[in-house]
Structure formats: structure tokens, C-alpha cells
């Protein structure tokens, strides 16, 4: 009888004991539940302060305006604002800057204008031989400032 017992072997279990994994998972869940409300979701950053002042220049600037639809307008000195296409813009600004090399050249874009059109205006001015281009902006009103 004893020979039968020694010969009879237990079958091996091919199951994974998941109880320790569940315990670890519950401990981690509790840790994350306690620490999550303590995390600061915002990041404090220091933005650079600008001391930009308006441009003071004796000469009237050349102003290239871009409207909401992406159309270009040119104002040469004290002349009135005229609609212009890109080829004529390059020719006129190039000739004007050659005669007046110290004249400031500014780009004014409508707030709703596509940035690509404003960038394209700056590229056109570069191809016209303008060495330095400024961007125009409106100062924030005190009531509408955020």
C-alpha cells in the first residue's frame, strides 16, 4: 500500500497565483488616489518683460498692410493707402528704399489675417532689398486688456 502512495505523484498546477499582484495593485491605487489631489497642475513660469517703446523717427515709414482676406496695401511716406499686388509691391518698395535707405519699413497685419500672408509680405520685402522690417501693433486698451 505504501508503494502505491509513493508512486502516486501529485499533478502540478499550471495556474498563476494572482493574489499578490492584486495586493500590489490595490496599494498602488491607494497611493495614487492620495497623491493625485496634492499634485500642482499648473506650472509657474517667468515670462520675459518687454520694454518696447514706439518708434520715434523723423521720416514717414513705408507701411505694408495685410487685411483679413490677405490683400496687400501700400502706404509710401505720407501718401494714401493703396491696394497693390505682390509684384508691384516688390518693385515700388525696392525703388523707394533705394532712394531713401534709412526709411523704416513696417508690416501691419489685421488681427484676423492669416499669419502666412503676413510672413509672405515679409518675404516680399526681403526680396525687394529691405534690410530691416518692423512689425506694427496696436497698444492694448486699458478696458480690454487681459
Shape: elongated
Arrangement of strands in the largest sheet: 3-2-1-4-5
Mean pLDDT: 80
Distance between the termini: 93 Å
> What fraction of the residues are assigned to beta strands by DSSP?
5-15%
Second CATH tier, the architecture of the domain at 62-135: 2-Layer Sandwich
Write down the CATH topology of the domain at 62-135.
Nucleotidyltransferase, domain 5
Q: Compute the gyration radius: what is it?
A: 36 Å
Please write the string of helix (H) and strand (E) elements.
HHEEEHEHE
The first-level CATH class name of the domain at 62-135: Alpha Beta
Describe the structure in your own words.
The protein is α/β, with parallel strands linked by helices. It has a domain at 62-135: 2-Layer Sandwich (Nucleotidyltransferase, domain 5), CATH 3.30.420.270. Helix content is 34%, strand content 14%. It contains 4 helices and 5 strands; from the N terminus they run H-H-E-E-E-H-E-H-E. Helix 4 links the parallel strand 4 and strand 5 (133-135). It is elongated, with a radius of gyration of 36 Å. It comes from Dokdonella soli. It is found in: Cell inner membrane; Cell membrane. The chain crosses the membrane at residues 21-43.
